[in-house]
Every structure is written in structure tokens, then in C-alpha cells.
Amino acid sequence: MVSNAGDKLFGAFTYAVLALVGLVAVVPLLYVFSVSLTPFAEVLKHGGYVLLPKELTFNAYKKLISTSGIPRSLGVTVFLTVVGTAINLVLTTLTAYPLSRKQLPGRSAFLFMVVFTLLFSGGIIPTYLIVKATGLIDSLWALILPTAISSFNVLIMKSFFEQLPEELFESARIDGAREFRILFRLTAPLSLPVMITVGLFYAVGHWNSFFSAIMYVTDRSLFPLQVVVREILILTQQPLENAEDQVPTVTMQMAAIVFASVPILAVYPFLQKHFTKGMLLGSIKG
Question: Interhelix angle for 70-100 vs 192-207, to 10°?
């Protein structure tokens, strides 16, 4: 195809807008990362704004690991993310697959209940009372079980299952396969994109678990990473004029943000292909 002047102008405008959006997203991350690695004297010298550090120091990360609850809270968060995501995927799949089968008795009623919970919830206080009544307070299960299934993710996965050719299911039934075997041997392998997409949604939610931890957990040994980072960001009381062997508050705060953000950011590029495909195919039907 031959591009005319209008197409070239539109292409240039599009690239300019995308570059601007990219800068808006990248510059704050680069600033936080740079400040966490730059000696504080150098930060003050440049008016508190550093994008590319000229000198490197890892004192903030060393102190973060040695004097705070970061290592313990990181283990708690990893447990929540791995175990919670596994439970989420199993329960979401077992809910979405039957709802995707049109021969399910009472399918419309079940779909109505799923959509109803998507639009309306019981509220914070009733949810807290239920968690307390079930004895989950001060346990990690209080951060997993109340959010074991997301109605939104159920609908995404259900829509994806409905895109699979019905002939595959009919041929499997003719060969004598039961529904559980069809689900785990046929449907699940074909649904890898939506599984990864939904799993990423759940994993990010568990990694960023904060409000539920404040509500349901008082034992400091069970605090997830985001709660400890919040304490570092708000409760650190070091003065700015520190000795050479001390780490200023701002540097500690930036290091804590990097420590909490980098792991989940590092995973996304490997899942981006499946994420995009799962979102597109899972959103064709309602």
C-alpha cells in the first residue's frame, strides 16, 4: 500500500502520542529506581530529581532487608500469591465451565446470581462479620478464601469456553469421556491463554493485598509485603541530615517501593502474549 501525506501525518501523530504516554508511565518508575540507588547527597545536589544516577549505593536495600520485616513479609506475600492464585483458578474454572454449557439445568438462574454479585455486595461490615464467625481472623486464609472467586473473571472464562467448537465436546462424549475428563484433558489445555490472563489478575490482586490484611490480620508476623511497605513509607522517622552510615528516609521509601514492585513487573513481559489473547477471546461474548 502507498501511504499518502495524510496517512504519514496520522502515523507520526500516533507515534508521538504513544511516546508521550510511554514517558508518562516510565519516568516515575525510573525516578523511584534511581533515587533508591543514588547517594542522598547527590539527590539533594540535583534538587531531589535524579533520573540517571552517577553514583550507585545499595545501602538502602541492605538496611531494608536487615532491619525491617521485608524478608518475612515477602515470604507471606509469595505464599498468598502462589496458593491463592491456584485456589482461585481451580474454583473459577469449576464455576465457569458448567455455566458455559447450555444444557446445564437452571443455567440462567446461576448466571443471574453471578452477575448479581458482580453488581451488588454485602459491604465491608457484613463481610468482616462472616470472616470473624468462620474463625479466619489472624490467619492467611482470611486473605484468600473471601476472594476465592471473582464474578468478573468467571464471566471472562465462561465466554472463552463458549468459543470452543461444540463438536469437540460431542466427539469426546461419543468416545465415553465424562465432564471432568473433558474439562481437564480437553478444555483446560485449549484454554491456556484465558487461564494465564485470569491467573495474572488474581496474582496481582494477592501481591498487592493491603486492605484485607489491615482488616483481618493483627499478627505482625502475618503481614504481607504491602502492609510493611506502607509502614516504611509512613512511619519512618529518620531525619534527612543523616550521617554517612545512615540511610535517609526518602531513599528507604524508594527502595521499599522498588522491592515491592519489581517482582510482579518482571513476570508480566513473559505473560503478555497470552494476556492479550485471553482478554480478546474472553470478551467476545457476554
Answer: 140
**What φ, ψ does residue 102 adopt, rounded to 5°?**
-70, -20
- Asked if 277 and 165 sit in the same domain, the reply is yes
pLDDT at 253 exceeding the cut of 90: no
pLDDT at 93: 92
**CB-CB contact of 164 with 247 (8 Å):** no
- State whether 31 and 129 are in the same domain: no
- Name the pTM for this structure: 0.78
Give how many domains the chain has, as a whole number: 2
Mean pLDDT of 42-60: 75
User: Are residues 68 and 13 part of one domain?
Assistant: no
HSE-up (13 A, CA, CB side) for residue 176: 0
For residue 245, the model assigns a pLDDT of 44
Say if residues 205 and 214 touch (Cβ distance below 8 Å). Answer: no
- CA dihedral angle for residue 111, residue 200, residue 205, residue 183, rounded to 10 degrees: 40
Cα–Cα distance measured from residue 275 to residue 267, given in angstroms and rounded to the nearest whole number:
12
Determine the pLDDT at residue 66. 76
Domain extent, residue 120, equals 59-286
Sequence-separated (6 or more) residues with CB below 8 Å from residue 28: none
Q: What is the rounded average pLDDT for all residues in the chain?
A: 81
